[in-house]
């Protein structure tokens, strides 16, 4: 049965009855769009509607099925049976097509929803929306989500979406047409396969290129942790890094600097038990060291200290009069944990000619509580040429003692780790603003001032420079890669579409304009490119990971550049005249 003839007959019969499409549709309880499709030969009514349709149009059922009015009053049984069989067959085909298209639309709808979800998840990841969820909710989102690991879930969603898209395109391919878009691609399976394969290859290659850049960036971000930059204060020629005089203003600024981490400060004192008479210097037989954290003690671990109940290494971060004594001194004096001892403290200062001579003066008598003891001789290393002390006290407590007595306070050593070593220049400028100088190894200046900064950054700088150079070179070459992708899309489309010149010429010969032809072939290339980009992105993510949500960006860039090249090739092919195209095709 000819759908066009059938539709023309309905239209003519409707006009004879003086009905509009809407009036006929109301009588049959269908939409006027359905009637329009029948009359244009696009669709076919359900077989149950044929008899009511014939009654509405005032024709016989047989005339309706034949698509013309009978010239004779009667028709043979065999001819009527053949017409009926053709009608049933045509109705069955149309019903099968509707079911098929319903499945395709369902698959495409599921694919679109899946892609929208993945797009939202990717944008959320890039913008850091997940990080804005706070407290317990954030922990549940990241660790106890209903889908488990988010990355694995996104990969499975991607596989599911790709499967739905592949199934939908397979059905359309098998039908040798895409009724939704009016594009036929089934007749060019090999060329379509080559286009998709080329897109997959380009996406994987560009994804690998971008993954390499992302990997170098990640190495650069982790470099401060892998190669920490340390610094310490010394005298001007770098010959001394302990028993130097570091002004309290410098100490205060180091403590408050955003670039200084793990700051180790020490101050050395001389001490005696109970009160020391000025003429009895031999009783000043203890070395006392003030530290601001356990690591400043030089090798002593928190676990090696026997602590009093409720005490730990945090005591050195405060200002209380607490102390950790050596095991040997603890046994010699018969002290116990929690016991309070009276210490006579003396501080060091320099004087004499050019401030080179070391002197001691009384600081204060103070009561200190014993909160722990350890084997200093075994556990502590000789630090900066100084023997291990007998007593460790909080750095803040010693500083407070100086303040109470109105005595100028100086620290005797300072070393730290540079926190944000990727911005070394900013760090060095801040240290310069603090009044710290650069080391001068050849200087003959005799100085004990701790005003010189020494930074161990040579290995870090060379490694960071190499990584930055690699990243910069790769980014500089990135536009060239995009141009190459445009050229690849142009050449591939030009080669694969050469054999379809005749098809283009025939379309134009029947009155379809150059722009319309371009649009028809471009939609076909768009669908093939989209399939290749999705498949390539999925393969690339499985191979290299998503590296921060940039996989979607890479796929989009490949798709845009490749389609741009396709567009140039299509427009060039369509610029050829119809007769010239037919001649070249022959």
Description:
By secondary structure, this protein is of the alpha+beta class. The chain has four domains: 3-75, 434 Repressor (Amino-terminal Domain) (Orthogonal Bundle), CATH 1.10.260.40; 97-175; 180-228 and 458-586, no CATH class; 230-456, no CATH class. Helix content is 55%, strand content 14%. The chain has 19 helices and 13 strands. It has helices at 3-17, 21-28, 32-39, 50-57, 61-66, 77-127, 135-143, 150-174, 189-226, 248-256, 327-333, 376-379, 395-405, 424-433, 458-496, 501-509, 514-544, 551-574, 578-585, and strands spanning 230-234, 246-247, 260-273, 286-291, 306-307, 322-326, 340-351, 357-374, 391-394, 410-411, 413-418, 437-438, 452-456. It has a six-stranded mixed barrel. The radius of gyration is 43 Å and the shape is elongated.
How would you describe this structure in keywords?
586 residues, alpha+beta, 434 Repressor (Amino-terminal Domain), 6-stranded mixed barrel, two-stranded antiparallel sheet, 19 helices
Mean pLDDT: 78
Q: Count of helices?
A: 19
Computed CA radius of gyration, to the nearest angstrom: 43 Å
Q: How many angstroms does the end-to-end distance come to?
A: 35 Å
Helix content: 40-55%
Please tell me what the overall shape is: elongated
The count of domains is: 4
Q: Which structural class is indicated by helix and strand composition? A: alpha+beta
Biggest sheet: strands side by side, in what order?
A: 3-4-9-6-8-7
């Amino acid at each position: 049965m000819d759908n066009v003839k059938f539709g023309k007959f309905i239209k003519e019969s409707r006009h004879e009855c003086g009905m509009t499409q809407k009036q006929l549709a109301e009588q049959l309880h269908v939409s006027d769009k359905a009637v329009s499709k029948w009359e244009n030969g696009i669709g076919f009514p359900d077989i149950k509607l044929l008899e009511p349709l014939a009654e509405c149009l005032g024709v016989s059922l047989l005339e309706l099925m034949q698509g013309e009015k009978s010239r004779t009053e009667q028709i043979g049984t065999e001819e009527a049976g053949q017409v009926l069989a053709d009608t049933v067959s045509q109705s069955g085909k149309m019903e099968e097509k509707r079911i098929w298209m319903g499945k395709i639309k369902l698959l495409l709808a599921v694919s679109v929803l899946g892609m929208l979800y993945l797009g939202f998840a990717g944008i959320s990841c890039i913008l850091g929306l997940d990080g804005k969820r706070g407290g317990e909710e954030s922990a549940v989102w990241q660790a106890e989500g209903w889908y488990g690991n988010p990355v694995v879930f996104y990969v499975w969603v991607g596989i599911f979406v790709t499967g739905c898209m592949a199934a939908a395109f397979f059905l359309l391919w098998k039908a040798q047409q895409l009724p939704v878009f009016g594009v036929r691609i089934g007749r060019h399976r090999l060329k379509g396969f080559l286009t998709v394969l080329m897109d997959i290859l380009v996406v994987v290659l560009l994804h690998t290129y971008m993954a390499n850049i992302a990997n170098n960036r990640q190495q650069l971000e982790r470099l401060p942790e892998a190669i920490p930059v340390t610094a310490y204060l010394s005298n001007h020629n770098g010959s001394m890094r302990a028993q130097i005089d570091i002004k309290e203003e410098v100490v205060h600024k180091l403590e408050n600097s955003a670039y200084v981490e793990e700051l180790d400060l020490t101050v050395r004192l001389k001490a005696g038990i109970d009160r020391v008479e000025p003429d009895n210097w031999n009783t000043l037989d203890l070395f006392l060291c003030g530290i601001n954290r356990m690591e400043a003690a030089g090798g002593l671990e928190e676990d090696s200290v026997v602590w009093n109940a409720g005490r730990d290494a945090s005591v050195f971060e405060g200002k209380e009069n607490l102390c950790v004594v050596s095991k040997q001194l603890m046994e010699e004096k018969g002290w116990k944990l929690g016991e309070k001892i009276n210490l006579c403290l003396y501080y060091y200062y320099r004087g004499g000619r050019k401030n080179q001579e070391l002197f001691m003066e009384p600081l204060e008598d103070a009561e200190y509580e014993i909160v722990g003891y350890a084997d200093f001789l075994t556990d502590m290393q000789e630090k900066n040429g100084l023997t291990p002390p007998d007593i460790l006290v909080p750095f803040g407590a010693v500083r407070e003692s100086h303040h109470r007595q109105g005595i100028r306070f100086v620290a005797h050593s300072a070393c730290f780790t540079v926190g944000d070593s990727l911005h070394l220049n900013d760090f060095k400028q801040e240290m310069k603003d603090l009044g710290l100088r650069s080391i001068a190894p050849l200087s003959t200046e005799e100085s004990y001032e701790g005003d010189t900064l020494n930074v161990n950054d040579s290995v870090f700088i060379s490694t960071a420079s190499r990584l930055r150079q690699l990243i910069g070179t790769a980014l500089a070459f990135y536009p060239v890669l995009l141009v190459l992708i445009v050229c690849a899309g142009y050449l591939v489309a030009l080669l694969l579409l050469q054999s379809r010149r005749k098809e283009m010429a025939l379309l134009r010969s029947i009155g379809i304009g150059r722009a319309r032809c371009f649009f028809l072939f471009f939609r076909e290339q768009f669908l093939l490119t989209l399939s290749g980009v999705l498949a390539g992105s999925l393969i690339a993510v499985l191979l290299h990971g998503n590296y921060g949500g940039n996989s979607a960006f890479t796929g989009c860039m490949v798709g845009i550049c490749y389609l741009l090249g396709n567009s140039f090739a299509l427009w060039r092919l369509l610029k050829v005249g119809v007769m010239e195209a037919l001649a070249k095709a022959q």
